[in-house]
Structures are given as structure tokens and as C-alpha cells.
Amino acid sequence: MSNNDLQQRRLAATPRGIGVMCSFFAQTAENSLITDVEGNQYIDFAAGIAVLNTGHRHPKMIKALEKQLHCFTHTAYQIVPYESYLSLAEKLNALVPIDGPAKTAFFTTGAEAVENAVKIARAHTGRPGVIAFGGGFHGRTYMTMALTGKVSPYKVGFGPFPGSIYHAPFPSALYNVTTKEAIAAIGRLFKSDIEASQVAAIIFEPVQGEGGFNVAPPGFIAAIRQLCDRHGIVMIADEVQSGFARTGKLFAMDHYQHKPDLITMAKSLAGGMPLSGVAGRADIMDSPAPGGLGGTYAGNPLSLAAAHAVLEIIDEENLCERAEILGQRLKALLAEAKAWCPSIAEVRGPGSMVAAEFYDTGTGEPSAAIAQKVQKKALENGLLLLTCGQHGNVIRFLYPLTIPEQQFAEALGILKNALTGLEIHHESE
């Protein structure tokens, strides 16, 4: 079995709409290392798109899954419930940065969590409108595509989208969008598109994922909280990518003084098993009638077992603290690299949710081509990186927080090499 043979089978058997980045196929994976079907190894700085904060196949998680396999794999929680759902909800209710009593409901995917957060907000307020932000990513279903603030490739050819969805700019120092301007844009929406009394929710990512790891300024979070309080709007923090120790805190919202009403979560919640959730103020979470929330696989018992193990691993291995330590080392290298790689426009992100944005020094424009060159050179030397950003010119670093020291050092060496002697052709040429 070769990578080339599998690639030909993939092209024949699966549609082109499922974009696949790598031309090799995984055979095994352990912590931060992937081995393909031909025995080639790659240090994984993608982590299944931020899913593996606790690494591939953590022994504690495997043990939890094996134990659950000997009990049952499915009953549908809303038909025959089970204790692990309750105990995980209780743990998260105590951990989420929500003011007052909290409740949690479980689902399967991040998009499903976002959809249900919107449902809960609409049920609570009796209003239709939702405000999201440019550069935000919330999923690939119709509602979440509408919320997502990036057209290509997520929205191309798929419209029309659900109504009553509005977008405002997200603050960005690099692109000269201030908090004041972003909040003023919401004010203009209230005057020209939808009255504030018809808005159910404002949804945002405290650190935009697909948008390029743009970090929400504290003043922006405070202003949204003030707007929501003034107009009776539900404040939703989408933490699908930023949660579970990635930013140096369990949730990115733990970095801020002001708290949301609802939080969506998924990805690293269950270490690679499909599980998502919505947690929030108990009075808001109780707004939908019985039967209004749920799903056949929502809160799958195997995924719940994995999530219990993930929370223990984060605590026992001090992964919030390790995220800070590793992130500082990475950011120091990237800051140093600016001396020989002037195309690095900005390095940003809290903890280990770190990104580097690239631009063409000749034109001053964002450069996806340069980011792709760095990505390609790193991959040729065994380091897997992801690009992102509205212009595709950002590299995001999503290594497992459990990565062995030797592999992290090796990865930084490969990255340094990828940024050294980078051949740059101005995109205007």
C-alpha cells in the first residue's frame, strides 16, 4: 500500500469538495508524531485542526475508551440516559467562565454546538437576529456558513443562506480596525439593518481560529457585554478552537474580566472523539422546551469517557502552564526570525494559540504565496503546518501541548530552516 495508490483511490472514490491538504495517508500516530503508510514520520503541528491538545492516543484516554467499550457504546441519551453525561456537565458547569449557575448540553460537532447556541438564544429572547464578525468561522452547515465571515471556500456556490444574520468588522491592529470602529459598526447595523430589540445574540470568537488567530481586545469584549446588557441580547463566545488549555487558560474567555452568557466548545474537548457542547447561564439554557435540544449521537458515551480523561490530563499534566511555556518559546523564535524573514508582518496569539502573518514586502499586500512556501518547506522536512486567515497568508501553530521536548525542539529547528533563505518573488511581478 503506497501513498500514491491511496491518492488515486481517493480521487476516484470521494468528491473534490472535500479538500485534502496532504498527499500522504496516516498509518499510526502517537502524541505529536504521525507515521504514514510508507513509514515516513511527521511532527504534527496541526493536531487535527486543534483537536489534539492532549496529543494522539493519550494512554489515559485509551484506557477510558476501553473501559466504556465494555459497558455500552450507545443508548441515545434522551432515550436512556447515563451518569457520565451528568458528571461531565457538572464538571464543566464548575469550570466555564459564566456568571451564576450554569448548565451544559452535549452535541457532536462544533457547528452543531453553534447552531444549538443560536436556537437557545432565540428561544430565550423570542428574537430572530444574530450578529457575527468578519473573519469569524463557525462551521459548514447552513446556519453556521451564514455566521462565518469568510466566503472562499466555505460559502462559494452554496447560497442563499438563512436570514437575519448580520456581520460587523472584527478589531485588528494590523489592518487598522479599532475596537471603537468595530462597535460603531454594530451601532450602524442597529440603525440601518435590524433594530436592537430584534437581535437574539452576538456571537464571536475570543481568538478567531480560521480568521487567523486574531485576538479580541479586552475593550471589545467589554463593549459587547455592555451592548448585550443594554439591549437584552445573548452574548455567545465560540470557543470551539480556543478551548481546553490552548491559550494558556482552560477557556480563552478566562483571560477577560467580562463573561459571556453562552459558550460553545468542541475540538479538544474529547481528544479526537466527536463531542461538542453548549454551556451557559442556567436560565438561558432552560429556555428551549423538552425535546427542543438533542440528537441521536449527542453526548455519545465513548466521547464522554474521552472528555473526562481529557480534563484529568489537562489538570494532572499542567497543560495550561505548558501552553504558556511552549508558546513563549515559539513566539521568541518567530520574533527573532523577523530579522531574516521580513515578510513576517505580525506574530500574535495567547499561550500556544500562536500565528504568524505574512505579507509581500514589495507590494505591502497580504501574501498567501509566502505562507504556502513556508508550509511546503516545513512539510518537506517533516513538520506539518496549517495556513489560515481571510487572505490565506497566516500560519497557525497547533502542536499537542503534550509534545515531547525533543520533538518540539526539532520542530522549531525545521521551522527556523523554513523561514531562512526564503525565496520571495513579489506577487505583483
Topology summary:
Blueprint lengths: L2 H11 L12 E5 L2 E4 L4 E4 L2 H4 L8 H11 L13 H13 L6 E6 L2 H16 L3 E5 L8 H6 L17 E4 L10 H14 L6 E6 L13 H14 L2 E5 L23 E4 L10 E6 H4 L15 H16 L2 H19 L6 E5 L5 E5 L9 H13 L2 E2 L1 E3 L5 E4 L7 H15 L10
Helix pairs in contact: 3-10, 7-8, 11-13, 12-13
Any key phrases for this structure?
429 residues; alpha/beta; seven-stranded mixed beta sheet; four-stranded mixed beta sheet; 13 helices; 36% helix; disordered C terminus
Would you mind describing this structure in some detail?
The chain has helices at residues 3-13, 47-50, 59-69, 83-95, 110-125, 142-147, 179-192, 218-231, 282-285, 301-316, 319-337, 368-380, 405-419; strands at residues 26-30, 33-36, 41-44, 102-107, 129-133, 165-168, 199-204, 234-238, 262-265, 276-281, 344-348, 354-358, 383-384, 386-388, 394-397. The chain is of the alpha/beta class and 429 residues long. The strands form three sheets. The protein has a seven-stranded mixed sheet, with helices on both faces. The two termini are 42 Å apart. The model is unreliable at 424-429 (pLDDT under 50).
What about the largest sheet?
7 strands, mixed
* H-E string: HEEEHHHEHEHEHEHEEEHHHEEHEEEH
Oligomeric state of shown chains: single chain
Write down the overall mean pLDDT: 96
> What class, by secondary structure content?
alpha/beta
Tell me the radius of gyration: 21 Å
Short overview:
With 429 residues, the chain is an alpha/beta fold. Helix content is 36%, strand content 16%.
